[in-house]
Amino acid sequence: MKIISCAAILTAAAMPCTAVYAADNTKKGYGQGTAVDEKNRPLGAVEFNSRYGGLDAFALSGDSSRIIITFDQGYENGYTSKILDTLKEKDVQAIFFLTGSYARTEHELVKRMIDEGHIIGNHGMTHASLPTLSEENEKEEIMSLHSYVLDNYGYEMQYFRCPCGEYSERALETAKDCGYRTIFWSSAYVDWKTDAQPLPADGLKKLSDAAHGGEILLLHSVSATNAEILGDLIDSFRAKGYKV
């Protein structure tokens, strides 16, 4: 299977992890914050890129004309098929970050993602917070899922998203030395609480108002609201002049 590349994020092919680490392993929780610059970009995301870009870790893409839509796939809640239908209708390529359990149990959906031209990302075999693991187990968390997806889908992943949004310098180095680029996000909202979903109009306004060039949008496919508003959201981004 040919590696699918994203136009807005540089590619990196995976390789065995062999590094010896001296980096700080203090656990940090990522958040983009609410303060924005003159381009409507969250200051937390801008600072993250500046601080960790050298470790191939990013919260904003380098393409100021584009918004990248990403989904975290921890478990299936019945909405992914509808999301994929909308993405196909709107001719949008998204990134789906899979956990090991999702990759193992949702073969038809994962295969559809790949067949329809989406990017598959690595969200950790067990969704474990990397800074809580030993160096060897950090590597295993990433590369066991990498190997599973390669062996079972013929697809070589190249983007990693830290489980729980928790990271350390050592964790970012681990991902880099495994051949991955670590992708956080510059826009997100509380969409994962399946029993407390935002009203569709509220979700659409919040996400549309937060639009900015280079945006990496984090959504969860377990959200009924996201499945309902996705087409209108894409139209809103395009109306603002962004490629999606």
UniProtKB/TrEMBL annotation:
Domain NodB homology: from-to ranges: 65-244
UniProt keyword Aminoacyl-tRNA synthetase present: no
One GO cellular component, as annotated: membrane
InterPro entries for this protein: Glyco_hydro/deAcase_b/a-brl, NODB_dom, Polysacc_deacetylase_ArnD
Any single GO BP term: carbohydrate metabolic process
Signal peptide per UniProt: 1-22
PROSITE patterns, per the entry: NODB (PS51677)
PANTHER family tied to this protein: GLYCOSYL TRANSFERASE-RELATED, PEPTIDOGLYCAN-N-ACETYLMURAMIC ACID DEACETYLASE PDAA
Keywords: Signal
Domain of life assignment: Bacteria
Protein name as catalogued: NodB homology domain-containing protein
SUPFAM superfamilies from the UniProt entry: Glycoside hydrolase/deacetylase
Record organism: Ruminococcus flavefaciens 007c
Gene Ontology MF annotations: hydrolase activity, acting on carbon-nitrogen (but not peptide) bonds
